[in-house]
Amino acid sequence: MKEKIQQLAHQYHADTVACRRHLHAHPELSFEEVETGKFVAAQLSTLGIEHQHGVAENGVVALIKGKNPRKRTIALRADMDALPIQEANKVPYKSQNDGVMHACGHDVHTSSLLGTVRILNELRSEFEGTIKCIFQPGEEKLPGGASLMIKAGVLENPRPTSIFGQHVHPPLHAGMIGLKPGIYMASADEIYVTVKGRGGHGAMPQECIDPVVITAQIIVALQQLVSRYADPAVPTVLTFGKINSTGGATNIIPNEVKLVGTFRTMHEKWRTEAHKRMKKIAESVAKGYGAACEFYIMKGYPVLFNHEELTKRTKNWAVEFLGKSNVVDLPLRMTAEDFAYFSQAMPACFYRLGTGNPERGIISPIHTETFDIDEAALETGMGLMAWLAVKELAG
Prior knowledge:
- This protein is α/β, with parallel strands linked by helices.
- The chain folds into two domains: about 1-185 and about 305-395, Zn peptidases (Aminopeptidase, 3-Layer(aba) Sandwich); about 190-300, Alpha-Beta Plaits (2-Layer Sandwich), CATH 3.30.70.360.
- Helix content is about 35%, strand content about 25%.
- It contains ten helices and 16 strands.
């Protein structure tokens, strides 16, 4: 079976590259993946694969049924959305949508899963069970397409017993993968703060309640949440990335200041406690200076947990498929992923697909205007995912 999958992955590589380049040239933002969803559905229709289009609006779900399809079901997931970035690459498949780019590799995830579908569909008489392939919208934007697809029933009828997902990883050379069992990626919450004071002339601060100074005090006070309240054993990040005032100038104290940031951690109980502490600290500091503070936390993706036993099996199967030197262990990441919703619902394994090639200058990180991949990674991506699906069903 391994040799058959490897041969089919090689055979379908050129077609999968073509799919990836089409998607890369026509990126769509989160929850706007109308044409992307249609493209995926059309590819599945051409293959004669049973599917549903329009799950959580733009999502697509395909079923590949082997022998005895009710015996067991497992799931594979790919996300489809792009980022609001202007592409700077000089390639034939450069984004044709101004200000939108597949800078996080979701074109790779989608095309790779389409390649996996082709492989599994051809081998469906050689395995038992059903494989549910989930093409998901809106990973890059809250509330996350994974949560919406789950609410729409994507994990029911039939219900998978486990799920796999992969993500591009430029630091790893194409042909390699990396994984980590247990807690792997952080929760991610968005923080929105408005400090309301009383503006006036910059030369007469005694007549004002200066929201700029108060906001600075709030930022410093909130950083103590990490240094003085967080357990050192629990990775925690609090970052404020934007601050602006309404009506301020060199000699004008504004009436209010807005502040936005992100809070990330690896522990759900501490996450809830930290939310309460942050709100209390900010409001208390503002009140102490005679100002008001509106503190709002938009709760984002939960902690991503890779099921220990499933990830151990995945590593062993990856070594069998790719060779020991091409499978590496990864550290914790403070980035977030809405695949975490799937990992909270059932045994899940989310691994990293190597896409870099320093010898060819393919080294740009994700979320940058020059991100690209060594397309040899697509053969690894679709072949390995097909192999994992077959092995998990057999188990």
